[in-house]
Amino acid sequence: MASTQVSPAPPTENVEAGKGKEGRARWGNHLEFLLATIGMAVGTGNVWRFPYLAQKNGGGAFLLPYCIMLAVEGLPLFYMELALGQRFQQGSIRVWHRIRPYFKGIGMAQIWVSFLNTIYYPVVMTWCIYYFYLSFSDPLRWTEDNCDKAATDYSCCRNDSSKYYWYRQAIEATDNISNSGGFVNHIVICWTISWIITYACLFKGPESTGKAAYLTTIFPYMVLISLFFRGVTLPNAWEGIKVFFTPDFKKLLDPVVWMEAGGQIFYSLGVGLGVIICFGSYNPVRNNCSRDATMISLINCGTSLFAGIVVYAILGYREHETGIKVKDTEGGPGLAFISYTTAVATMPLPQLWAAAFFIMMVMLALNSQFAQVEGSITPLRDFKIFQKIRREVRKAGRYNKKIKSLLHV
Question: What DSSP element (H or E) covers 17?
Answer without folding.
Answer: none
